[in-house]
Amino acid sequence: MKIEVLGTGCVRCETLGARAKAAAERLGIDYELVYVKEINELVKRGVIVTPALVIGGNVVVAGRLPGDAEIERWIASAV
User: What is the pLDDT, as a whole number, of residue 79?
Assistant: First the structure.
């Protein structure tokens, strides 16, 4: 499964990536974590506020840091 963190590389983006990685590992799934930092790509995907999390090609959250349980639910439902 592909998990993407969209943002400029700020601390919040890194935190979101770490939370997503931890959630995927707790669930025991195979995943690829990708950071997308190019502004043009963010705009192309309709992301105006960062960080954003994309799971299985769908933007599930933008502009806030979700909790661990929330991220885990999104990943589990995308499997």
Answer: 86
| 13 close to 51: Cβ distance less than 8 angstroms | yes
Ordered by where they begin, the domains of the chain are 2-78 (3.40.30.10)
Taking only the tens of pLDDT, the chain with its 79 residues reads 999 999 988 999 999 999 999 999 999 999 999 999 999 999 999 999 999 999 999 999 999 999 999 999 999 999 8
Residue 63 near residue 46, CB atoms below 8 Å = no
Contact predicate 35/21, CB 8 Å = no
What is d(CA 13, CA 15) in angstroms, rounded to the nearest whole number? Answer: 5
**Chain-centre distance of CA 18, in angstroms?**
9
Reduce the DSSP state of residue 40 to 3 states and report it: helix
Give me the residues paired with residue 62 across strands.
Answer: 52
